[in-house]
Amino acid sequence: MPRLITQVGYPLVGAILIVAAWALACWAGNLPTVVLPTPDKVLNAFISRFDLLMSEGWVTLKETLYGFILAVVLGIPMAVAVANSRPLNLMFYPLLIGLQSVPKVALAPIILVWLGTGIESKLAIVWLVAFFPIIVDTTAGLRSTPRELVELAQSLRATPMQIFLKVQFPAALPFVITGAKVAITLAVIGAVIGEFVGSSEGLGYLLLSATSQLDTPLAFAALFALSFMGVFVYLLVELAERLAAPWLPPSSQRH
Amino acid sequence: MQGNGEKRMAFGTIRNVRKVFSADELLSRSKEPVIALDDANFDFEEGQLVALLGPSGCGKTTLLRIVAGLIPKTSGSIVIGGREVVEPLGDYGFVFQSPSLMPWRTVIDNVLFPMEILRHNGKRARARAMELLELVGLSGFLHARPHQLSGGMQQRVALCRALIHQPKLLLMDEPFGALDELTRLEMNDLLLRIRRETGASVLFVTHSISEAIYLSDKVVVFSRRPARVAQEIAIDLPYPRSQQTRFTPAFTRAERIASEALGVLPPNSETEARVH
Questions:
Q1: Smallest Cα–Cα separation from B166: which of B197, B195, B200, B138?
Q2: Which pTM was predicted?
Q3: Best of B117, B163, B166 to mutate (most A CBs within 10 Å, chain A)
Q4: In whole angstroms, what is the distance from residue A100 CA to residue A78 CA?
Q5: Are strands B34-44 and B227-234 parallel, antiparallel or unpaired?
Q6: Dist. CA A154–CA B80, nearest whole Å
Q7: Any idea where the domains of chain A sit in the sequence?
Q8: Superfamily classification of domain A39-254
Q9: Euclidean distance between CA atoms A236 and B96, whole angstroms
Q10: In angstroms, rounded to a whole number, what is the distance separating the alpha carbons of residues B153 and B149?
Q11: CB pair distance less than 8 Å for A149 and B117
Q12: Which residue does chain A place closest to B94, by CA atoms?
């Protein structure tokens, strides 16, 4: 019971306080709905346009997850290559850092020119923002294998493949997961950037079109839908963590 | 114990082993090569427990890793069981100072790790793992995770892991150095019991004089770096030993000789002590 109170009760109280402050600001400032709709109007929009939010949200969710999976599937082998080969590391790691310092929003229009306004361009943008934390954290994890464990395997004449599969990779897994957690939240941002720049569907598109039609309650509803989605995909990664690395203490106990 | 090497080869011979770490190998900023091991010489027989005693950082660990075939020696020769060691021979057990268990494996799967690498991971291996864990008093923790165990328990798991593939030789690098004194005494007795049951030869690195004497048939005392063998001390205390052994005159005498060899006591301190 106390755990339920700390994990559900406290966040709930916090949320209620914020919503109350928001309602108070609307009432005290006498703000027009176009500028800041009251909480109940947003809730109303959320309920009445729920089907629309769900269908647009589904589009954004697909872009986010597919792009994220792409980042994991391509990022981990790249990290393995960079971590285990000094020439590859010297050749590509600086480029990688350089790429990371380019603002992805600035790349989005170019990607759009290359790949069109369909899901392909969104996947590319999501991949670009999400794969960096994955490759960096995975590389760090692969390079920090405890020396004793490698020597233990070597003393048994383990093959390099055995060392990788049974020692190096499992030891790096907590790092991979940390990277994936950062990546999944960035992936949502990437998907919205893609939709902002050029799209005819998705929550980002809905947000833009609602604001241009001065339907601010709907824009806010879309914003909330996005944040719920962000939490949802983050929890998905945490669930994957529990399944893939059951020996790690739950993240709520780690801080 | 020393004279019989002339007729036949001992089980293990370590001859003129020298190790110079080049600046590249050290991965530090120093440009100077470091002589870790100047000249190591000693023999041991099958089933013997030999303690390598010396000050911290004197190169005992380096020697152990060379014996394991993990790092190359600069010169000299090491022959174990008739085979020259130039790479890991694959049939040693290794115990490190830290337990170095795999947090992602349960206790029994940690013990079975060597069998997986050697591809002998069948029912018999599992039965043997359970036997070993029983022997060290951990049969109630087969499916626990390492982080749920105390340091001493983790080191016992590491000991089982080192023994699972029935190695002829056990290499131990200050395995009990990080444990508290009581646990360490318990582990010493456990090691002696395990040695009796497995018959494995053991090279045991330590910087504790009393631990070295309590455990071993022979103590090889190393000088400060660059390490040379300062003295070999045969320990003629009968096995099985118990904590009582620590309080016998023979034990004290051995401690005195080892202390002199290490330079903790001046040479011939016994006669001086008698004079005053």
A1: B200
A2: 0.83
A3: B117
A4: 15
A5: parallel
A6: 18
A7: 39-254
A8: MetI-like (1.10.3720.10)
A9: 38
A10: 6
A11: no
A12: A152
User: Given an 8 Å threshold on Cβ–Cβ distance, is A154 in contact with B116?
Assistant: no
The pLDDT of A209-233, averaged and rounded, is 94
3-state helix, strand, coil in chain B (%, to 5): 40, 20, 40
Taking only the tens place, the pLDDT of each residue in B234-273 is 999 998 899 999 999 999 999 999 999 998 888 877 665 5
**Pairs of residues, one from chain A and one from chain B, whose beta carbons lie less than 8 Å apart:** 55
Nearest to A154 among B88, B98, B165 (CB): B88
Which residue of A149, A157, A158 is in closest CB contact with B102?
A149
d(CA A208, CA A122): 16
Asked if B69's CB is within 8 angstroms of A152's CB, the reply is no
User: Which tens digit of pLDDT belongs to each residue from A115-166?
Assistant: 988 899 999 999 999 999 999 999 999 999 999 999 999 999 999 999 999 9
| pLDDT at residue B157 tops 50 | yes
Whether residues A153 and B90 touch (CB distance < 8 A) is answered with no
Residue A230 at interface with chain B, using a CB cutoff of 8 Å: no
For chain B, domains (ranges, CATH) are 3-86+201-275 (3.40.50.300)
The closest CB to that of B90, out of A156, A170, A245, belongs to A156
pLDDT digits (tens, 9 = 90+) for A75-114: 999 999 999 888 998 998 888 888 888 888 888 999 999 9
Query: Closest to B103 (Cβ–Cβ): which among A151, A158, A247?
Result: A247
Complex ipTM over 0.90: no
Counts for chain A of helices (H) and strands (E), in that order: 13, 0
